[in-house]
Amino acid sequence: MIEGLNNLLEGTGHPGLAELRHALGALMDGDTTCGCLLEEQNLQSHHPRVYRLRFAINGEMRSLVVKRLEPALAQRNQFVVRRWLPALGLGESGPKLLGIAAELRGECVWHIYEDFGNGALDWSAPDRRRVQAVVELMAQLHTRAADHPLLPEFRLHGGELGIHFFTANVGDAIRCLAALRQPPVELSSEHEALCEGLLERLHQLAKERPHRARALAAAGGPETLLHGDLWLTNTLTLLTARGWQARLIDWDHAAVGPLSYDLSTFLLRFRVEDRCWILELYRDAVARAGWELPAARELNLLFETAEFARYANRIIWPAIALAREGAAWGYAALAEVEQWFADWSPVLPEEEVPQRRQLVER
Predict the structure, then answer these.
(1) Whole-model pTM?
(2) Residue 354's pLDDT is what?
(3) CATH of 128-352, one of 3.90.1200.10, 3.40.640.10, 1.10.520.10, 2.50.20.10
(4) How far apart are CA 155 and CA 251, in angstroms?
């Protein structure tokens, strides 16, 4: 009997709590277990759906992480952990999925993970050994998955984050913003200027599509499996007898695409002055698989394409909310994206990065 388990996350309004509580009880040996729930810690400040749970079980401390997912995302994460990473020889490099609890109506799925603790990289004072462990794992993921026989399965269940992602998001963002020009939506002069400014940027990106597609084809390298969301909170390091070992968690955005998509996300989490040496660690890691990165100027164009595709994606949803519901928060969200465009600067300082040849296999 685990005291407090029947009241787990009470008051949060999450669906599937009965199923989650049952799965947790079964995971900890059900009625034969004596213990109590000590702490529930929300690990997300906005739209909380990830929690650290601490238990005292038979006199010992145990910590688990539970995450509520939409069914499709739950399936993607399950494929990553139990099929894709093991197929790449990286089965120990992802989160350890200990249990699954599906809400009976199919509204959501809860995943139960081993808790790896608070080992995320620190952007303000990056430790070279820990960064290198994460970079080595990124390189292994990208080089081993490139042209892998499971690539069609990666794409089927994950999607695509290359030039088609750019094209689709820019086109959809244009359509959604254009809908705000039509009744019954009434725009103030300020909001009209905001939408027109974003549309101008998006139409320019649409014109640049052929140039960016050629750059990705020439220098982007082979398609591979991407983590898709390499913020530092998803890059954990553990100190073991073999030194620092990396783990990548939260594979909700795993998909197929060029390595520049992941590399851009990762580098942008660090200060400009740290990006060059981190890039060199990655360059050295992929070189062992016969790959060589392109020049900094070429990389910056690939990174910009990935980031602008993400910016365009962030326009779509507030624009839809404004057109359909008149959601007041939509204009603030659009203004934030406009500021991102205005503040954009190259990921790499081109004058400081050694020039590299195009990414090719030797």
Answers:
(1) 0.92
(2) 47
(3) 3.90.1200.10
(4) 14
